[in-house]
Write a structure and sequence with these properties.
- By secondary structure, the protein is of the alpha/beta class.
- The protein has two domains: 53 residues, no CATH class; 284 residues, Alpha-Beta Barrel (TIM Barrel), CATH 3.20.20.
- The chain contains 13 helices and 15 strands.
- α4 links the parallel β5 and β6.
- α5 runs parallel beside α7.
- The two termini are 38 Å apart.
- Its cofactor is [4Fe-4S] cluster.
- Pathway: Cofactor biosynthesis; molybdopterin biosynthesis.
- Isoform MOCS1A and isoform MOCS1B probably form a heterooligomer.
- In the N-terminal section; belongs to the radical SAM superfamily. MoaA family. In the C-terminal section; belongs to the MoaC family.
Length: 392
């Protein structure tokens, strides 16, 4: 390892420090240093650093701003809202083969309740909202929800993660209603494999939705691909090729454990292995400079319109820069994707709680957020909901 440091070809490409300061002083945190390395091949090692909250974080004791800051100084400006637990696919990594019990409709958040809670967050500093599911496009009032959310003061980005099955025909109206960013899930380019994984037909419809999004000017169109050994790791470079002529950001995601998806470490294809496959075929691949809160490691390839990213939740977590909270379809707030802890916002809201009371509930949950999630084997043994309940 020391020979790497002494090699004159080494040069730092980026050092991203964590924006951290707790109420009682600074915390020492581990953070990955990205080095472009020899021949442009990235190498990774870890250091510790001291850092402070960014200058634009409010410094007063206003609960409207402080409720989004956890005990490790992370400011949460990104809210993911699950609109429904229903889905028109049955992806194997998302739900068990026998299906799941869905929450009854009266126990799900209404449109007005979603907007009330979303307003609490945007008035407190959240500037990005992502709509998820289930499959968000199966909710009949999804256009109205988009329109009302996009008009919230302070909101800069309104995104959606969708399986793309019915997106093509709905997207023009969704864009008119303020949808600014899209992630479309597609785990294989082979129709028969698609049907095996999703237990449904419709591969061509997803491809049509990707093209429709490009035609409507979404740039980039992000395509989420969960990589699973023995299923689609042989298609990694085929997906990368999609980025050559189109503004597609293909995002390779490490297979993650959730209740009912029969996760096994043998199915996990780690980021290092995925990257090795790509760099062998595309040696000009180069790391981009990522924002400290970015979940993905982002790369560009010479001559390609699009980009390639890797989401490394299992092998190289990015908890130190996490700025995300999740509002589930049943009104529960989840501060960590892999943490079992949840707190209901629906119940106090329906009991007549005012904004101050709701902010106290939210702030207390955010303050309980841990520094990082557990390791992959502990996650696999921890009770959690199926992904379809949590929201993609």
């Amino acid at each position: 390892m020391m020979s790497r440091f002494s090699n004159s070809a080494l040069r730092f490409r980026k050092f991203t420090s964590l924006l951290v300061k707790s109420g009682n002083g600074s915390n020492t945190v581990s953070r990955c240093i990205e080095d472009e390395g020899v021949s442009g091949i990235p190498m990774r090692w870890y250091g510790t650093c001291f850092a402070k909250l960014p200058e634009d974080v409010p410094k007063d004791d206003n609960p409207v701003s402080q409720m989004l800051i956890d005990s490790f100084g992370r400011l949460h400006t990104y809210l993911r809202i699950s609109l429904t637990e229903r889905c028109n696919l049955r992806c194997q990594y998302c739900m068990p083969a026998e299906g799941v019990d869905l929450t009854s409709k009266p126990q799900l958040l209404s449109q007005d309740e979603i907007l009330r809670i979303a307003h609490l967050f945007t008035s407190s500093g959240v500037d990005k909202i992502r709509l998820t599911g289930g499959e968000p496009t199966v909710r009949k009032d999804v256009e109205d929800i988009c329109l009302r959310l996009s008009n919230l003061k302070g909101l800069k980005t309104l995104a959606m993660t969708t399986n793309g099955l019915t997106l093509a025909k709905k997207l023009p109206r969704l864009k008119e209603c303020g949808l600014t960013s899209l992630n479309i899930s597609l785990d294989t380019l082979v129709p028969t494999k698609f049907e095996f994984l999703t237990r449904r037909k419709g591969h061509h419809k997803v491809l049509e939705s990707i093209d429709a999004a490009i035609d409507l000017g979404y740039n980039p169109v992000k395509v989420n691909c969960v990589v699973m050994r023995g299923f689609n790791e042989d298609e990694i470079c085929d997906f990368v090729e999609l980025t050559r002529e189109k503004p597609i950001n293909i995002r390779f995601i490490e297979f993650m454990p959730f209740d009912g998806n029969v996760w096994n470490v043998k199915k996990l294809v780690p980021y290092s292995e995925m990257f090795d496959r790509v760099v062998r075929q595309y040696p000009s691949i180069k790391r981009l400079q990522d924002h400290p809160t970015e979940t993905a490691k982002n790369f560009e390839i010479d001559g390609h319109q699009g980009a390639v990213s890797f989401i490394t939740s299992m092998t190289e977590h990015f908890c130190a820069g996490c700025n995300r909270l999740r509002l589930l379809a049943d009104g529960n707030l989840k501060v960590c994707l892999f943490g079992p802890s949840e707190v209901s916002l629906r119940d106090p809201l329906r009991r007549g709680a005012d904004d101050h009371e709701l902010r106290e509930v939210i702030g207390a949950a955010v303050k309980r957020k841990k520094a990082s999630h557990a390791g992959m084997f502990d996650i696999a043994k921890t009770a959690n909901r199926p992904m379809i309940h949590i929201g993609g």
